[in-house]
Write a structure and sequence with these properties.
- Chain A is mainly alpha-helical.
- The first copy, chain A, has a single domain (9-192), classed as Tetracycline Repressor, domain 2.
- Helices cover 72% and strands 0% of the residues of chain A.
- Chain A has 9 helices and no strands.
- The first copy, chain A, is elongated and about 65 Å long.
- The relative contact order of chain A is 0.11.
- The mean pLDDT of chain A is 96.
- The A-B interface holds A 22, 24, 26, 102-103, 107-108, 110-112, 114-115, 121, 124-125, 128, 153, 156-157, 159-160, 162-171, 173-175, 180, 183-184, 186-188, 190-193 and B 22, 24, 26, 102-103, 107-108, 110-112, 114-115, 124-125, 128, 153, 156-157, 159-160, 162-171, 173-175, 180, 183-184, 186-188, 190-193.
- The first copy, chain A, binds a DNA duplex through helix 3.
DNA sequence: TCCATTCTTGAATATGAATTCAAGAAAATT
DNA sequence: AATTTTCTTGAATTCATATTCAAGAATGGA
């Protein structure tokens, strides 16, 4: 059958995600991608076609792992309110200390590509819709539990929270203080209808 | 004295702003910049040094005109509440029809450059601080007028509104509906403490 | 009118990054 | 073990685009 591939495709994608995340699509040179993944150009091109193809796969990998993590956190607690609080608490920590200092790969890419690339554009819409649905679900649970008034429109509130998250993703790049981030999420909570 | 320059520096900057705004820094080719401004490469380089220099000046021109417009709108009405409402109403229109479909040049650039360029980074912080101050002023006026409770923290509320605007700037690129944009600004109003 | 200076022009060049490719190495099948 | 197939390597190439430059044109002063 011939020589077997001796690198792990998923591990390579995870490394590539970091480069695109930190530097952006244009800012990420094949040279650095090769350094970080430990691959040579030839192997990258054989496995992924070209830089654009690598990026699409890296983006999908990022989206999948983020969706998974977000949904898990929102549902980690029977209380919808606590789920949303946990989600934002984790976001803030990552923005202060973790990779979220680089913003969010989806947000960064929406801005960098506008909606010029139909393939990427579709993936964005899907990802944002997924986040929105997960938030909406948590809001509905909060309503059921009496943590929130029955006449809150869950869909609208979810869109608003998605917008807040996008805003945080931008501000994260300006190295904001914990105080600033917490003030923002506190206001978002109020906006949805949760009591302080 | 020699030949006099026969183009208007400010007009050139305004055209350049549009190219950077729509395409981003990397996406804006000198070729297109020359086409749009009507200049030749040589003239651009003589006047602005290089692409980076042109960008910095274009960004400053954008920031100045946006600050001016925003502050004017926020103060266009004696009521702080009405000023903020006008500001968001105008933003929504521009996101549906106008150049804000391309997002905001500041937001786009914050994301594209992260905080790698100190010169640009400083300009960002200043611009965001200006917006924050203007919003905070309107909120204070609303408090004075009894449109808002005295114990609203104007500084925190202003930071929150800046975040919302950044989020809108991102979502604008996904071609959102009027309903979506209005739902978001309605929630932001609530979050600050205005009655529906 | 002529000169000195500065601007304009657009083709030529330089630069940097993506991509290819030919040779070598490893695995599996016979 | 030989053979075939596929992967790996990294230097060479291609390609795109920022930048330069030499020649021409317009202005103000002498």
């Amino acid at each position: 059958m011939g020589r077997i591939r001796n690198f792990d495709r998923d591990a390579v994608l995870e490394s590539a995600v970091d480069v695109f995340w930190e530097r952006g699509y244009d800012g990420a040179g094949m040279q650095e991608i090769c350094r970080v993944t430990g691959l040579n150009p030839g192997s990258v091109y054989a496995a992924f076609g070209d830089k654009h193809g690598l990026f699409i796969e890296a983006l999908k990998s990022y989206m999948a792992s983020m969706s998974r993590e977000t949904i898990a956190r929102l549902n980690s607690n029977p209380s919808g309110r606590a789920g949303i609080a946990d989600y934002y608490a984790a976001l803030i920590e990552a923005m202060l200390d973790g990779k979220r200092r680089w913003g969010c790969l989806v947000t960064n890419s929406i801005v960098e590509f506008a909606m010029n690339d139909p393939q990427i554009s579709e993936a964005f819409q899907l990802h944002l819709a997924r986040l929105e649905t997960a938030l909406s679900g948590a809001i509905e649970r909060a309503k059921q539990a009496g943590e929130l008034s029955r006449d809150v429109d869950a869909a609208e509130a979810a869109v608003f929270l998605v917008c807040t998250t996008q805003g945080l993703n931008v501000l994260a790049k300006t190295r904001p203080s914990r105080r600033t981030l917490e003030a923002i999420t506190r206001h978002a909570f109020t906006a949805v209808g949760f009591k302080a």
